[in-house]
Amino acid sequence: MIYLIHGTNQVDSRRFLIRLKGSYQDIQIISGKGLSKEILEEKLKIASHYLFGGKSSFLIEHFSGDWNILPKKLPEETDIILWSGGKVETGKTLVKSFLFDQRRKATTFRLADAILFKNEKESQSLALELISAKEPIEKIIGAVLRGLLLAFCAKDDLRETPLSSFVQQRIKEQAKNWTRVALKKAILELLRADVALKEGRAADLILSQFINRTAAL
Q1: Which residues is 56 bridged to in the sheet?
Q2: pLDDT at 53 (0 to 100)
Q3: Which residues contact 216 (CB under 8 A, 6 or more apart)?
Q4: pLDDT in tens, 89-116
C-alpha cells in the first residue's frame, strides 16, 4: 500500500504521520529531495532482504509529487508512506490519500507543536490568531515552555513520565529537530520574551521575534 499524507496544515499532518508510523515494526526514512527511481529501487531491493517479522515501511519525506520514481510493485509486507508539506495531485497512481489542507482552530498546544517542528510559517500564523482571540499570554508561554522542556527530556528518556505512548513518540519526533544546546537557547529566548511581555511590550511583536529566532536555532 502507498499512503500519501499531504497538505499545508503540517501540524496535523505530522501528528497523523506519527500515529501511522507507530503501526509498523520497522520504518526507514528517505529524503524525497533529489530522489530518483533508481535510488529508491535499490533501497527497496536491499531492504527486502533483511527486513523480517511484521510489516515494514519506507517513509519518503518532502515528496516532490513525481510519481514516476515509485515502483510498480512493492516488496511483500512493505508499504510506502509519502509526506509533503503541500498539496500533491494523485494522478493515476493507486494511493490512500490523506489531505490536511484546512487548519483547525488555533490552540496553545498546536502553537507549541508548530514551534517544536520548526514550522515557522505555521507558528507565526497560529501565534497571531491566538493573540487576536485574546488568549492569555501566560497560557501561551506556559504551553511553549512545557513543549521545550519535554523535548529536552526526550534527549534522555521519557519512559518514566506519565505520558501516553503516542505523546512520547510525538515528543521524540520533535526533539530530533533540536540539539541540547539549541533547546537551552530556545528556553532562554522564551524567558526573555516573557520578561519583555511583562514589561508591557506588544505581544504580537515579541512572539513573532521569538518564533523567528528559535526557528533558526
Answers
A1: 26, 78
A2: 56
A3: none
A4: 987 788 999 999 877 789 999 999 999 9
Beta bridge partner(s), residue 80: 2, 58
Using CA atoms, how far residue 35 sits from 30, 42, 62, 80, 148, in Å, is 8, 11, 10, 14, 33
For residues 125 and 60, give the distance between their C-alpha atoms in angstroms, rounded to a whole number: 27
- Cell 497560529, residue? 126
Strands 96-99 and 26-31: unpaired
Task: Give 77: exposed, middle or buried? Use CB within 10 Å, 0-12, 13-18, 19+.
Answer: middle
Q: What is the pTM of this model?
A: 0.69
**Assigned CATH for 108-215:** 1.20.272.10
Domain ranges of the chain: 2-99, 108-215
For residue 162, count CB atoms less than 10 angstroms from its CB and return exposed for 0-12, middle for 13-18, buried for 19 or more: exposed
* Grid cell listed for 19: 500515529
**Judging by DSSP bridges, how do beta strands 26-31 and 78-83 pair with one another?**
unpaired
Environment class of 172 (CB within 10 Å of its CB; exposed 0-12, middle 13-18, buried 19+):
middle
Cβ atoms of 3 and 20 within 8 Å: the answer is yes
